[in-house]
Amino acid sequence: MEQKIEPQELQLTKQDFESDQMVKWCPGCGDHAILKSVANIFPIVGQQMGYKKEDFVVVSGIGCSSRFPYYMNTYGIHGIHGRAAALAMGIKLTNPKLSVWMISGDGDSMAIGGNHFIHIARRNPDINYLMFNNKIYGLTKGQYSPTTPKGQKTKTSPQGTFETPFNPGELAIGARGQFFARAIDTNPKLMQKIFIEAALHHGASIVEILQNCVIYNNKIHALITGRDTKDDNQLILEAGEPMLFGKEKEKGLILEGTRLKVVKLGENGITKDDILVHDPTTEDTGIHMMLASMAPPEFPAALGVIRSVKAETLEDAV
Ligand code: SF4
Question: Helix, strand or coil for residue 264?
Answer without folding.
Answer: strand
